[in-house]
Every structure is written in structure tokens, then in C-alpha cells.
Design brief:
Layout: E1 2-6, E2 9-15, E3 21-26, E4 40-41, E5 46-52, E6 59-65, E7 70-73, E8 80-81, E9 89-90, E10 113-116, H1 118-121, H2 133-138, H3 140-146, E11 150-153, E12 157-159, E13 169-175, H4 186-199, H5 213-226, E14 230-235, E15 239-240, E16 267-272, E17 275-278, H6 283-298, E18 304-307, H7 310-315, H8 321-335, E19 340-343, E20 364-366, H9 369-381, H10 391-397, E21 409-411, H11 427-431, H12 439-454, E22 458-462, H13 487-491, H14 495-513, E23 521-528, E24 533-540, E25 544-552, E26 558-565, E27 569-576, E28 594-597, E29 607-613, E30 617-622
Parallel strand pairs: 10-11, 10-22, 11-14, 14-18, 18-19, 19-20, 20-21, 21-22
Antiparallel strand pairs: 1-2, 2-5, 3-6, 4-5, 6-7, 6-9, 8-9, 12-13, 15-17, 16-17, 23-24, 24-25, 25-30, 26-29, 27-28, 27-30
Helix pairs in contact: 6-8, 9-10, 9-12, 12-14
Length: 623
Amino acid sequence: MGATVLADGATFRVWAPQARTVHVIGDFNDWTRNDASLLTRDNHGHWRGFVPSVGDRHRYLFFVVGEGSEGPKRDPYARELGTPFPSQCIVRKADFPWHESGYRTPRFEDFVIYQLHVGTFFTPNPPRKGGTFLDVARKIPHLADLGVTAVQLLPIQEFQTRFSLGYNGTDYFSPEMDFAVVDGDLPPYVAEVNRLLGAKGLRGYVPEDLRGEMNQLKALVDLCHLHGLAVLLDVVYNHAGGDFGDQSLYFFDRQSTDGGNMNSLYFTDKGHAGGLVFDFGKPEVRDFLIQNAKFFLDEYRVDGFRYDQVSVIDHDGAPCGWRFCQDLTSAVRFDRPGALQKAEYWPVNPYVAIPPPMGAGFDTSLTDGLRIAVRNVIGEASAPDERPLDMAGLARSLWPDGFSEHWRFVQGPENHDVVYDGRELRIARLGDPGNPRSWYGRSRARVATGISLTAPGIPMLFMGQEFLEDKQWSDDFEFHNNLLLYWAGLDHADKQMLDHLRFTHELIDLRWRYPGLCGQGFRVVHVHDENRVLAFQRWVEGEGNDVLVIVHLSTVNQFGYRIGFPDGGEWREIFNSDVYENWVNPGVVGNGGRIFAEPTPLHGLSHSAALVLPANSVLIFAR
């Protein structure tokens, strides 16, 4: 489908079953409609043909004559679009000078996801320009040093507005052109990414390698892999648009609009988020979306997907939506068995993470139970008293019902939806709404992140969470530049930010050094609402590697607090979040690095120990 470059020209193929005629026009024929530019229709409604002398970076459009109108249309399979918008399609070869590093996508249980928005993650040139793929690439060392294993990009497919969260895309195979650096601004970016390559002893790119949004996204994936990071794309297969435009895939074969949106080829008449739900009953529509996923796996070498609002596919796409999900996940798994497929489904439905025929076949599902419970106890703890907290509710949320393996669900206290401008507070500000940089805000932020990084499930951080960002965020970098991430704080050695970054980094590092934190074994050991204490055990089934995690959200230290342990003898205090308060905390409260569990049964375990629990803290013990 689309434009495919051959040795002496290119083939063009497009689905327009109700069109009267379809021409391909472009640089190669002076944008002229004639017999030579007319494509041939087959019995399945596809128009196709070969045009000689078409080469890489030639521009083109389809000119569609239908019963309702006639005019140009962009290729739904266009690999790249030009500027300005609405724009022409660009013929592109698939080649790119990848560095063959032998990178392998992590095991599902080894994912630690970092979610970011390309346009606002790192923005050195506002308001003239938002963030770009190559701006994200400049921060790859930061992410690699942090210890996360995957970068999840909010949707990067072409959308028609200047800035967006990305959920109003219209051109599914072309990366967003506003996320690209224009040719005239490329030289310093080429130098910067080549510095990253040079640090690893690898050949650099030449400027031609990085021309266009297509190659710049590939360079980002390439550099991530070289630094040990997987790349996940957030894809929107439930609906398209919000803004379509006359040249988009909306009413693509220019049929009459008299029949309403049910007559629009790709869509039904059901709306969602300002756009239209795809018509999953048509094989060509299902194939369009499945080929899109395979395209990003094969041509961009991405490592998996976060599928937006699968619940909309199921409900508004009935009766064909659930079967489409099964076809999609099966096709992706056949193409790349190790690619992570993460579903968003509300309310949470464990069947999305069960293989067909019973389930939809996704590997894992976004869940909200732990997020809600964490935000509840952190928010309640910010009240100026020592009221009981719902630690029991927090304990119940640690492993959501219906999920068999701990990597079948993804959780975290922040994400792009929750902390968007005008919605909920970021964790530090939730911990102390009046002063998120106070000890109360900082320590409670450590507890919230600490729970996420030690609980069962695949943990997910939202951009800035690692360094105590306390502002909500917005995709509108022009009018809300006050909400951009405060990178200057790290650049100018803001100690509170640096201490929190160290906390997050060292806690993630602990996951790799202590396998129990990524193990299947889990049980709640102790929970006490009045004392604001929760303790849970993690281990590797069949091996041990036990760890005990203790969460304490009282504003006063507790001494001699006895908790059950699964075995006796010495247990090392391998992590104490209180250490990171004004690192190294000169007044740290803790257990001196070790405790001894006595043969006094407690909490259903054979041994127990009297502990010191620092105020607002997370402690971890291991053998």
C-alpha cells in the first residue's frame, strides 16, 4: 500500500472502492492529471500503478474523483509529510544507517516505563518551537542513568493542530512533522547526537541521515537501543481525528456525505474524543491498523505499543471490536513475539491480558487501583492531623483482581491524563499543597514513588516525576510555558531535585540487584490504618530472594514497631528513603543497616523484629 520505491520508479496503491477515478500527481509529472497518472482499479477497490522515474523524497498526492466531490487526498499510508500543513506526501525509501548493537527488548517482568510527551519533555526553543525527537535524544543519557528500561512516547503520528497530546491523529504512518528539526537547524543537533555516538565509539550520522521526521524518529529509536532503552509507541486505533480536513482519510473516496459518517469508508457514525470510531467490520480498515503496527515494529524497530482506550474498540466498535483486538495482538505477536503490548481499558478488564480465544491477547493492561489508592493516602496524609489512612485499601490495590502474573498490569501514581493542566495534582504537591518543596511534600513523594517501584506490576513514571516536578503539564508549550519541566533546576544543582533524582535512581537500581523486587511471589504481611503502616513481601518463586517492604506514612518516627519476618537471623536494611532527605541525611532515622529477626511468630510468619520506622518513609530489608 502507498508509495513503494523500486529501482526505476515507484508503485502506488490506495484503497478507494467508491471512487470514479484516482490519479497520482506529484513532482515527477508536474502535478498533472492525464492518462499516464491514472491508476487502475482492481476487483477489491484498490487503485494501483507504476510510475517511472519516481525517487526518494519526491512529493505526491492522490487526486480522487468521487460521486460527492473531487480533489487531492493525502495517502493514508504516506511514510512522511512535508510542511506546511495541509501538506503533500513524500516518497521515502525505508533505508536508514542503523547501528547494529544486538539490542534485545527486555523481558516483560524487567520493564520500568518512563512516559513522556515529545513536544514538551525537553524544549530548548520555545515559543518558536516545541520539543522534537532529537531533543528527546539529547536527554537519553539522563534516562539511561536513571535506570528505566523503556521510553513510552505519547502518540507521535501526524495530527493537524500545532500542538496536541497526540490523540487526534489523522495520518497514521507519518510521524508528526512538528516533532522534526528543519534542515536549516540540523547542524548543532547532528553534532550533539554524534557526540553521544562518539562516546560509545560508534560512527556518527551525516546530516542527510537525519533529514525529515521519519529519519529523526528512527535516530531516536537507534540511540535509545544503543543506551539500553526500549521504545514504546502510544497508538490510537479506536478513533481518528478531531480535526480531519478535506485532504485527510475522512470520506477518502469522496463519496457523497448524504449518508452521514457511516458512508465515510474508514469510520462509523460513532464519535469519540472529537473524532470518529474506526469501522472494525471492514477487513481493509482492520488491515490498515494492523499493518500500521507492523510497520512501526519492522521499519522503526520499536519494542511495543500502548494501545489507547481499547475499551472504546470493544464497546463502540461492537460487534467486531473484540475480534479486531485478537487479530491485532496475534499479528503483532507473530511478527515480534517479544514486543510488549499494553492495553488501556476502562474499567479495568483482566480479560484484555488473557490470550485468545477467551481474552483479547494483550500482554499487560494499565490499571488504576494502585494509583487511586496511593493518591488517596498521600492526599489524606497532607491534612494537619494524624487521622487513620486507608492502608488496607492500599494493600488490596497492590495486586488487582483477575491478573495471573505480576507483569500483566502496569501501575504508577502519575500519568499524562491524571496530572494534565486543570486535573489532579502531581504527587509532591498532593503531599503538601501549600509547599510541595517542604519536607512533607518531598518525603511523601518519595513514599509514593517508592510504593510504585517495589509493588507488583510493571512500574511507570511520568516525565519529571524522577526529579520532584511539582507542576501539572500541558501540551500547549506556547501559552503554558510555565508548565514546562524544570530542567534548569538540575542544570543549576537544585539540591532537592538532585536528592530526589538520586532516590529514584538508586531505588530502580535496587530492582536489578535484588530479583525479589521483580519476582512473582507476593503477600501482604501487615497493615494498620491507625499507625499508617503497610508491610509486604516479594520473592522469586522457587528461588527465594525474599525482600520485605515497609511503608510508613506517619509524620512522627516510630520505635520498637514489631513486624513479622519470613525467616530468622540477620536481615539487611538495603534501602531507607529517609537517607535522601538532604542527602546524606545527617539526622537519618533507621535501623543501622541491619536487624535480627527473632523466633517470635507474628503476622502469620515464623519470626519477627522490632523496627525503627522513620516518618514518611519506605524501608526495604533483604537477607
